[in-house]
């Protein structure tokens, strides 16, 4: 056990509780005292918070804490302005070698907007991209659900402490995310309520964790627009699903397009933003890996990052055409790969 690191984490947690998770007060304390341990030694005199009891609460709720100086803290967040001092998380840890897209939009989405968000969630998860969103009703919920439909990974960023779930209606969804290998994260300590201002603060982490942000249905005044603004400040890609100029749910979306945001009408538009940096997932189906021909096919599709025709697969894999057609048909039936319009993908 790294005692010094453990003391820093426990001291930060106690101080965050004592200061109500206030980012600026925490920043001032760190700047003044240089370490969280020294800051807590000074600040504990003015409050009744117990460092040990607060740490026990994390353990009780299976909440982990990573400081922004820890090796496991996401590199993408270290690159952004106004980076979190720390992240609380539950579920699978946040890996650095992941391709992630934030899919966000209005809580009061149209049925069509919800369907579009879910389809994008499915399509990118099928290709191994991690879906990041805010667990809110509407677009966020559909994006998370879409990733789960494909047994993909999704990350939910909350505006409250992880000892509770906001909104309460999505408590089951939060559990499903964790059970499926995903992660629920927050910069706020347990006991923190979802105050209005925290949703905007939360949005910078949604975009900060992602290389690309996709906006689906953003009204003129919308948290999704704030997410897009943060993404641009973080030098990340912003894509927008276009919509009717007559519908208020697209007023903010169209403003973003006018401001230079890219258009997205399919998952391929998102994948292109990753370019050579796209990280294909490890293929986990042991049945596929037990057969050498299937293994070659799977690796060929992984490395491409986009749907391929039979001819393209044959050219890249060097498998003879008759054998390849037999295997592709069998793998589609066994749901090891997918086919649409004569193109194959994971």
UniProtKB/TrEMBL annotation:
<protein>
    <submittedName>
        <fullName>DNA-protecting protein DprA</fullName>
    </submittedName>
</protein>
<dbReference type="InterPro" id="IPR003488">
    <property type="entry name" value="DprA"/>
</dbReference>
<dbReference type="GO" id="GO:0009294">
    <property type="term" value="P:DNA-mediated transformation"/>
</dbReference>
<comment type="similarity">
    <text>Belongs to the DprA/Smf family.</text>
</comment>
<dbReference type="InterPro" id="IPR057666">
    <property type="entry name" value="DrpA_SLOG"/>
</dbReference>
<dbReference type="Pfam" id="PF02481">
    <property type="entry name" value="DNA_processg_A"/>
</dbReference>
<feature type="domain" description="Smf/DprA SLOG">
    <location>
        <begin position="67"/>
        <end position="273"/>
    </location>
</feature>
């Amino acid at each position: 056990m790294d005692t010094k690191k453990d003391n820093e984490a426990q001291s930060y947690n106690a101080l965050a509780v004592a200061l109500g998770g206030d980012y600026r007060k925490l920043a001032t304390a760190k700047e003044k005292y240089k370490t969280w341990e020294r800051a807590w030694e000074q600040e504990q005199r003015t409050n009744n918070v117990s460092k040990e009891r607060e740490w026990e609460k994390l353990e009780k709720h299976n909440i982990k804490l990573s400081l922004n100086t820890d090796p496991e803290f996401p590199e993408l967040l270290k690159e952004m302005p106004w980076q979190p001092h720390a992240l609380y998380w539950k579920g699978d840890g946040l890996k650095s070698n992941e391709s992630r897209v934030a899919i966000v939009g209005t809580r009061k989405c149209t049925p069509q907007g919800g369907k579009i968000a879910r389809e994008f969630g499915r399509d990118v998860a099928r290709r191994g991209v991690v879906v990041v969103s805010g667990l809110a009703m509407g677009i966020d919920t559909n994006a998370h659900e879409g990733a789960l439909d494909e047994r993909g990974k999704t990350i939910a960023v909350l505006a409250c402490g992880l000892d509770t779930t906001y909104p309460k209606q999505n408590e089951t969804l939060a559990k499903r995310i964790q059970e499926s290998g995903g992660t629920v994260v927050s910069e706020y300590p347990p006991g923190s309520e979802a105050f209005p201002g925290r949703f905007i603060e939360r949005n910078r982490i949604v975009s900060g964790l992602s290389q690309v942000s996709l906006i689906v249905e953003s009204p003129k005044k919308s948290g999704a627009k704030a997410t897009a603004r943060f993404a641009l400040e973080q030098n990340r890609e912003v894509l927008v699903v276009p919509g009717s100029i007559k519908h208020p749910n697209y007023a903010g979306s169209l403003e973003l397009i006018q401001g230079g945001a890219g258009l997205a009408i399919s998952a391929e538009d998102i994948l292109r933003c990753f370019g050579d940096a796209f990280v294909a997932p490890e293929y986990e189906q042991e049945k596929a890996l037990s057969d050498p021909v299937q293994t070659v096919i799977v690796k060929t599709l992984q490395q491409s990052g986009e749907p391929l025709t039979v001819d393209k697969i044959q050219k890249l894999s060097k498998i003879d055409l008759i054998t390849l057609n037999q295997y592709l048909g069998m793998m589609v039936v066994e749901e090891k790969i997918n086919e649409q319009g004569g193109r194959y993908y994971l």
